[in-house]
Amino acid sequence: DQQVKQNSPSLSVQEGRISILNCDYTNSMFDYFLWYKKYPAEGPTFLISISSIKDKNEDGRFTVFLNKSAKHLSLHIVPSQPGDSAVYFCAARAGGTSYGKLTFGQGTILTVHP
Amino acid sequence: KAGVTQTPRYLIKTRGQQVTLSCSPISGHRSVSWYQQTPGQGLQFLFEYFSETQRNKGNFPGRFSGRQFSNSRSEMNVSTLELGDSALYLCASSLVGVSGELFFGEGSRLTVL
User: Fold this and answer.
1) Which residues of A touch B (CB under 8 A)?
2) In this structure, are residues B36 and B104 in contact, taking their beta carbons and an 8 Å threshold?
3) Which residues does residue B52 pair with via DSSP β-bridges, in sequence order?
4) Which residue among A33, B12, B58, B109 has its CA within the 20 to 30 Å range from the CA of A17?
């Protein structure tokens, strides 16, 4: 039972354009969501997060949107840069659980072409 | 500020052996979690330790175990290795109560032959 789903295995975008990565979840107990970026042979790096009491959070070029009724979140990267090429993971934490337990999606490979 | 450090980075074992992986969290972080990453299953939560106590455990067999020391450093052990245990094992630490993100190490790549 995959509680966090990233339905697009890959995404290709031109440099300077917007990248939109999507994530769906099924568990209504999830109340905190995070996005991580991962390069090969490295550990995931935290990008941005959002609490379920918000519907938007921005940090520089990165914006995360949360639609609780649709159980959907998205990560927008504007403008996209070649250095953004990596695997992006969506993750969620259920309320009342310990900090360290995250449920991850399968990841989306983002390729930004110069 | 040093990040999460995992050792060894790479190791090769044979079926039936056991392995111990080590993780040093970011200074001041008292929560340490372990994850397994495989191509088929993605990132799966193994367990979490806080103040030397296991707070949460994922859906893995009893061959997978861990512990945390008083200095917050953690180890995980896998006994009676199987081919399917080949994976990248990631350790993450967090500053409980301040922010929600986990900080990951670079991982230990285990190959079981």
Assistant:
1) 32, 34, 36, 41-46, 49, 51, 89, 91, 93, 97-107
2) no
3) none
4) A33
Q: By the 8 A CB rule, do B105 and B5 touch?
A: yes
Contacts of A100 in chain B (CB under 8 A): 31-33, 45, 48-50, 55-56, 92, 94, 102
- CA–CA separation, B7 vs B22, rounded Å? 5
Amino acid at A113: H
Beta strands in B1-113 (DSSP E): 5-7, 10-13, 19-24, 31-38, 42-50, 53-57, 64-68, 74-78, 87-94, 103-104, 108-112
The string of pLDDT tens digits covering residues A63-102 is 999 999 999 999 999 999 999 999 999 999 987 777 789 9
The residue type of B95 is L
Count the neighbouring beta carbons within 10 Å of the beta carbon of residue B13: 16
Query: What Å distances lie between residue B78 and A103, A104, B8, B55, B73, CA to CA?
Result: 22, 22, 14, 19, 17
